[in-house]
Specification:
Four copies of one chain form a homotetramer.
Chain A (H helix, E strand, L loop, with lengths): L1 E4 L5 H13 L3 E6 L4 E6 L18 E5 L19 E3 L2 E3 L5 E5 L6 H14 L3 E3 L16 H15 L3 E4 L6 H7 L2 E4 L7 H7 L6 E4 L6 H12 L6 E5 L17 H8 L4 E3 L1 H5 L2 H13 L4 E5 L17 H17 L5
Parallel strand pairs in A: 7-8, 7-14, 8-9, 9-10, 10-11, 11-12, 12-13, 13-14
Antiparallel strand pairs in A: 1-3, 1-4, 2-3, 5-6
Chain lengths: 339, 339, 339, 339
């Protein structure tokens, strides 16, 4: 931590800061500059009871600046070679890319079965489908819930694909764990710390979506909540952030991909469906995600998007998805991956 | 809903849209423009099974634009005179302003008792304090939990102030309902719909904070989740949004105050402590909030902010808070309110 | 400057940084932490040829963090009592608030004369009107240009109010200087450094609007461009920033008001017309701006907004403006100002 | 245009809107909904003197929604096959990708000559270098100006590459036109309409950067300013937008690439150097840009970034740039392009 003193801080104020810092088990070094002094504090910033930011309310202090990032278990330093997570026959984080595809919401047995056939035929590695849907309006379709989970599991087993589904309520964890292979945390719950803690106590891989306004360092800390409870299998998912731009539903932040890969050993996947909200942009942004270094993709595919109960505009028709899978092959090879 | 067709949409495509729209119980009016046609759809946009946005994946369609706002129960049309919520001796939404004050987190009996005395002496109407703290890092102080609730309730009763505290986990609802007079939903849970639904089934007023990236229309819909479950007592709280500006912790969006008052009958309060993150800005922004039409304030007050376990830089010392309360009096009168 | 080294930086890398820093006339202090070292660099950060940020490309360096703000002449330290700028009979920055009002664009002699009468009658201190209009579309009305300037000056003289108008092109400076009392720089030119430098060589006060995505520190630096060329009369204007919120045209960032007043001796005014884009929000936000400590307001008033050639939705009718002026009086007194 | 009336608008109010709309040469269709009426206005939205938005201040009107995008000349409909711009031996917008590389700022003859050699050797198609630098601080290095232009031209001629440089001040246009092959407009001038108009009257291709907070539709309108003055050669450049994320200098918005290619016939290039601000992210984001469909890249390359006078952290060393050029080859082929 670096405590920056005000330009006119007195010697007494500086010494008071030194005492407070040392009381908190840091070592303090005062450096007198031309215009102001700073107090460099040496200690375990992440372990200390205090992060020292409260010193900003101490007389004479202008600012407190942290020096180190606050994540530990999610940090690449922990596992420089990167983590690979196995899910049934599929694998995420290795040389081979993982494509997770399926409808936004499970709407009926016929729909999820048709979707399962389509994504399997095109070469996807996992099947996704929402049973519990976080909808902005309480009056919108909220998902088929338990019944949907059963249908999803059945469809996945039939075509031989592990299944991924969203969990919103801690109350449903046991139910979802029973039916799904990967539990997804949606953007709106990216900082629902109660939910994250509880998921850290399950033994299923967690696909953690970045929140709409979650900074990358906060995103790492959200993963840290899960990891610190004992579940090592977290997959980070960039799905677009909220910005001033309204031409797209979200702004897919692909900068996040190489940066998260630098910072963390965890696999990183990208969801260009939510990231753009427009079906015609899904394929180019899926290719871009892989070129940027993503380990996989989350793609919404619906047998008939024009009658979808949610997120119609961003779901691909099976034929478009099959074309995307074909286009991914040479691109994956160009960046040293397989699919 | 207005369905905007592409410039080169064919007559067949237009007619297909008309049929789909009518199948969903809307009436369709085709209007042929100079360059393109639009299909105006008349029906209950909020009640219909579909919001029609999935039509954006239909051939020939460019865009689907909703015409009406999607909130109902939170709308001012429901209660043009506005809602006033009674909480013990306090009241929020009437002519008299409500000031809710206290520390960010309950840290000890001595601390919450000192805070209770200070805010009561200065004229606050309710006491706040966090027992469950949503912290970015799992390694930061997470609150005193159940023990903190007991201390908060005791301190509030002693000084005669109703108490407000945050609820994060549905699992804790019964416990929090037992000890608190108002349940607060924090910014990170503003779209935790499972939690909102469950709070809609309690009989306690809910202080709902806007999320860091929640649009005002989505904020209204979050309130709608609570209202639609039967709990009519929702207090909306503007607490700053996340923008590119880093000089302040958040960007307090006071535009929200008059706009929410126009749209909704619910009371609106403002939290300038989180909204700025800097103690010296709290008082001017508290005054500004009242001038903009807010019904009350949420102010963090700590007997000793320089040793606070969380959010030190934004908490007021008792003397500063007392000064703010004095400054609020003439300002409230200038805008036709009392305090 | 604080140079944060990577966790595994070698002693050679640290020493190389020390040499580079000392070559640039800073003194270097190495502080060895538990996990990594930092090099604290003492020197004139603002005067040095280099701001040292290029060190981020040096081997072993993780990050370079500036310690001081980079503005000098705009800083409050230069004139702790604050600056008051005289413009004809008006004054901005003192105890008395300054209200600048008038139409978005000058559209005709009749219109600007009617506007001048209305704002004078209601008690405004200056008349504003745009002759050169920065419009998003080249096909929109671009202003009456030179002819508009003449009409504005004439109307202002007749009613006895100094006039304020926008300058967009350095080429027009002489012309605008001839007719206007204050030159306004619009949000889109907030970082048009060529224009700012040239305005720094005029002897007219400059009303500098914050850009849509200008951080407050950058805003101060934009003022610094003008000040450093010799023109001491800069008025800072908060007019709303661009955020994800679409319910209002911009997000008026009133946090900026007390923060700029803390940082700078320059007067600060607020434009709630652009800041909200909605006429019904202009009055509450004008009151809020004054409560937050603004020295004045910029209000768009049009004799007939429903036929305005630009920005109709945010312009006040004369009667509404007169009501606002009445409401401002007690509010100004409540915060120790006059109007 | 769709004029949405308020829920309780009277029949008189609706008829008044109809009259106003028809006075402006639109045809009005009233559609009575369940809750409110809308007035659909048929006419040339882009050509009409008014865009009708001023109707939002008319009694009974809630909102005015445009139906069509406002760009014309930049629209893909004008040239569905896309535009290819020739610049000396180079070409931008065709099958072959164009890579523009060179230092952020021209610092000396030795530096620009070394950079020219390096980028030529690695296979770049154009040489870039800044002579006029838009710096946040007036105290930072502002570029070598005229002298730098001469050095850039000389270096480019020697290695046989066209040169690209930024223009900030209309006053310098003749000078820059004399020395450069492509004139670049920087992000801070993206809506400097005076400059854009003047550049529209030159005969040099314009590389137009998106502003930090410019919406894509506004970006198209900025291009429209140039095109409407008669210069058809505009190259759109995505260079990152300003968001809440601080881990990267900007948020490179690659969604913009396929969307601009859909909307417009103009070539689109990407600047991953400014888009990320971190040299280690430049290569992955360059690859991603091409995968997303960009026609070219703008890459900052400096012979010695650790001593650069500006933007050191984001400039590539020659060896890294050469590696990137090698990596681009198979990737370009994978998406059907050459380099």
């Amino acid at each position: 931590m670096i405590v920056v003193m005000k330009a006119h801080a007195t010697e007494e104020e500086i010494q008071a800061v030194v005492r407070m810092v040392e009381d908190l088990d840091y070592k303090a070094h005062v450096i007198s500059g031309i215009e102001r002094s700073v107090v460099a504090c040496v200690g375990d910033e992440r372990g200390a009871k205090h992060q020292l930011t409260h010193l900003e309310s101490v007389a004479g202090v202008e600012r407190v600046m942290p020096v180190v990032k606050s994540f530990k278990l999610a940090s690449r330093e922990v596992r420089p070679e990167g983590s690979t997570i196995r899910i049934g026959n599929a694998e995420i984080g290795g040389k081979r890319l993982a494509v997770i595809a399926g409808p936004c919401a499970i709407e009926s047995e016929a729909q999820i079965e048709a979707a399962a056939d389509a994504v399997k035929a095109a070469g996807a590695h996992m099947l996704r489908g929402g049973a519990f849907k976080p909808r902005t309006s309480p009056y919108s379709f909220q998902g088929m819930e338990g019944e949907g989970l059963v249908l999803l599991e059945k469809a996945g087993r039939r075509v031989g694909l592990p299944v991924v589904t969203e969990i919103m309520d801690p109350h449903d964890i046991d139910l979802v764990v029973e039916h799904a292979d990967v539990l997804q945390v949606g953007a709106r719950n990216a900082q629902n710390f109660s939910l994250l803690r509880r998921l850290g106590r399950t033994n299923k891989p967690i696909l953690l979506k970045r929140g709409m306004s979650t900074k990358l360092e906060e995103f790492m800390m959200a993963a840290e909540y899960i990891l610190s409870e004992g579940n090592p299998n977290v997959i980070l998912c960039e799905r677009g952030i909220r910005t001033f731009e309204t031409a797209t539903r979200n702004t897919l932040d692909l900068n996040a991909v190489p940066l998260l890969k630098e910072w963390s050993h965890l696999p990183v996947v990208v969801d260009p469906s939510h990231g753009t909200g427009i079906y015609s942009l899904v394929a180019p942004m899926a290719l871009a995600a892989i070129a940027a270094g993503a380990d996989g993709l989350l793609i919404e595919v619906h047998p008939k998007p024009e009658s979808a109960l949610s997120d119609g505009p961003q779901q691909l028709k099976p034929a478009r998805f099959a074309n995307l899978m074909k286009a991914l092959k040479p691109l994956a090879e160009a960046v040293g991956r397989t699919i």
